[in-house]
Amino acid sequence: MSIYTNFGVDWSTPKPIANSPVGSMSFFPAFTVSPSDGTVYVSYYTNRVDPPNIDVFLATSRDGGKTFTNTRMTTTSFSFSNLSFVGDYIGNAIVPQTNRLVSVWTDTRTGIENIWFGDNQGVGFTPLTTGIITNTGMAPASNLMISIDNNNLSFSSNVVYRIYVWNSLVSKSLVYANSLNMNANTSQMLNFDIAGNSAYEVQFLVTGQVPTDTVINVFGTDSSGNVIQHEKVLQQQLTQILQLNP
């Protein structure tokens, strides 16, 4: 990227913004500048995650283009190999009131060429939920354990989690909400007190360059630390939701 500050008379020395691994390709950039705070956004195609398959990344600069952070917008890599023509069909738009950037691109993950979108507020990533877990019976859970493993050897991820409980099945309360950065190839075990609640639910949003490499498992345990089998929700049992609840 090259910039100017004098109406295009003089341009800075061009420099790369994608920070792509050696040997990878990044192409068809779409530039957008926020009218409210001057943030520079560049969405682009790249094969950096699973070559030769393609992903869409978003480069963001909040210092006038001096430095950029790059984030994966797609959650699944896809292929252009069976297409005779792709074209530079990628673009961005800003919602000024909220500074929300929305990107659209050509995507073939479902087996057909289609239009997909994501944004800079997590819509390009998929929130997940355990669903409502009933916590009643002879030995209800008193503790909630969340196991988080980032199995990617190169990239970190960020995990937002929210825990809701029901004192009765009609009274839902948000009791825990936080986010944590998971460095590459690391694990964490989180513990929460849920004693006395008749049901609970955990929602997650994982972001980063390869969010699908972060594995989350949820366990309800009794006062002795024993896992209650019907309150165990593994990664493959988590279900997608449109957005995290407030």
The tally of domains stands at 2
CATH first level of the largest domain: which class? Answer: Mainly Beta
State the helical fraction: under 10%
Q: Note the overall shape.
A: elongated
- Named at the architecture level, the CATH assignment of the largest domain is Sandwich
Whole-angstrom Rg: 21 Å
Euclidean distance between termini CA atoms? 38 Å
Sketch the topology as an H/E string, one letter per element.
EEEEEEEEEEEEEEEEE
> In the CATH scheme, what's the topology name of the largest domain?
Hypothetical Protein Tm1070, Chain: A
Biggest sheet statistics: 6 strands, antiparallel
Model description:
This protein is mostly beta strands and 246 residues long. The protein has two domains: 26-119, no CATH class; 128-240, Hypothetical Protein Tm1070, Chain: A (Sandwich), CATH 2.60.290. The protein is 0% helix and 48% strand. It is built from no helices and 17 strands. It has strands at residues 26-33, 40-46, 55-61, 69-72, 90-95, 100-107, 114-119, 128-129, 133-134, 143-150, 157-168, 171-182, 186-193, 199-208, 214-221, 227-233, 239-240. The strands form four sheets. Strands 8, 9, 11, 12, 14 and 17 form a six-stranded antiparallel beta sheet that branches. A four-stranded antiparallel beta sheet has the order 1-2-3-4, with no helix packed on it. Strands 13-10-15-16 form a four-stranded antiparallel beta sheet, with no helix packed on it. The two termini are 38 Å apart. The model has no long low-confidence stretch (mean pLDDT 87).
